[in-house]
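Usage example:
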Amino acid sequence: MSEATRAEVCAVAVAEAFRGDGEILASSFGTVPAVGARLARMTFEPDLLMTDGIATVLESVDPVSGPKPEPVYGAWMNFRTVFDVVWAGTRHVVMIASQIDRYGNQNFACIGPHAKPKAQLLGMRGAPGNTINHKTSYWVPNHSPKTFVEKVDCVSGVGNDRAKALGEAGSRFHDLRRVISNLGVFDFQTPDGAMRLVSVHPGVTVDEVVEQTSFELAMADDVGESRLPTDEELKIMREFLDPEDFMSREVS
Amino acid sequence: MDKRTTERDAVAELRDGMTIGIGGWGSRRKPMSIVREILRTDLKDLTVVTYGGPDAGLLCAFGRVEKLVYGFVSLDSIPLEPHFRKARQAGSFEAAELDEGMLQWGLLAAAHRLPFLPTRAGMGSDVPAINQNLKTVSSPYDDGEELIAMPALDLDVAFIHMNRADEKGNGQFLGPDLYFDDLFCLAAKKRFMTCEEVIPTEDFAKHGSIHTMKINRMMIDGVIEAPGGAHFTECPPDYARDEKFQKEYAATAKDEAAWDAFVSTYLQCADEFEYQKVVKSR
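Running the assembly step on the lines above writes:
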């Protein structure tokens, strides 16, 4: 196998975010998260559920590019049922962050004041309900001081500081797991729930990550290199999940 | 009872400043023939409640919206509705943006005649800052949790589009998802259902199982036969989204001349029948 691409390293980091999740709904937005979630399902988290993005739970795995196998449907899951799952908490979502801050407050709603934004983005969508109810991770394909910001323009996904302010009852299901960017992997395992650099992808230095981040990053005790895909993982991604390498259009 | 009517007569029930709910989701099974009819009138200052798609985009582009109650406005294959984006960035209407689950809760509260329903969704986010009328409620039980009291979204009029209906007002969806169309009807004082085809009641069973017959006639005041009425949004299994048309529509948000041409070609037709003729002759 040739060396892993940056996108493949990122996909493995997304897969790792689902490790230990068991039988819950894995939802992902973006190409790299889509591959990462499926990779986890096909290797170490076989019990994960995934939908076809329309209204069914797929028991087969749907690749993001290349030939599609005949789908096998396990259950009907319309939007109303997805909301039920969100509120029941049996879900781990990977959303994209257009902006994210030190405590994991995420914005993909708008840039500038909400009443008259400079740039309208996706909107709140389900981010407020997701983050306060179940496990959430983020994917940032373009790590820069403009995406890793001191303060987000609008809080769509709730961060650790705001969750804490809600008190124990209000924050008991809030659970930020990982942030995966094109440069590295981050978590929130710090006393005050601030973001921490866990690993840098091959070819990236810690200094580079710090430079591209507007807020002060906490550091894991031993910031290492992000885990490389195994040969088996590379084979699954290259031969089945993404043979046309759509992932590299999102991150290179 | 024969509840059949027309887009024109249904929209004639609307008044400036009313709150209307529009069924469907994004660019999926939207009652677009009704939206097009609203654009033929001079109705204004509407509050529009929607899982938004081109319904919201068009009404905003024509300046008919005073307040939009929504969680997103998307064309699905184009993630952000470009006419909505343009209107937002111009600050041309009040954006009552909610978490998409809160919208369901507001409709359900209205449907159940409750003043509000409690939800955790929205707590800690900027949703309360955007919607300053939102209040919280504390659990009266031992946990004491503070929750958002999502107020009922009471609608004056609701519009939905079904695959099949009978003249009495029973409706059948044949696609993958009902979305929240039943709740839109239950939340409204007056309810209109457009459909691809009005069929004899006994024929519902030929098209789908009883599980597809989600709209009963207590929920509907008027039935409008509108073949192609959801165009250019999808209405499976009757038709897929008209992606080519949608792309053309989306591109007009950045090109004034193209927008004028789009409006004069498609949105200044005398009625829905003419619109369908023009669309077919492309």
